[in-house]
Amino acid sequence: MLDQGTGLSDKQIEMCDDFVYISQYGQGTASLNVTVAASVVLHEFAVWAEYQESAREGYKYLLAERPVRRHARVRHCSLIIYSDLNIRHWAASLHVP
Hints:
extended
């Protein structure tokens, strides 16, 4: 999630613990839209973590009741997404309860 033209600055790179690359096939584009890239990462993580797919009725997903928030929201760290590294390698390094 960065400027597609210039990429990360040296200072930004120094702040990162690791990078995630999404493999791309073909020469059609040098980068992915942030929304598309985040969707790919979240889908791959859900598959890796073996999350169960939500229930559907026909082609429509069924919505559950919204849970009651018990704590204030906490800001989590940002995720920087690049192309071309096997995302499963990254996901395998995560500790999922």
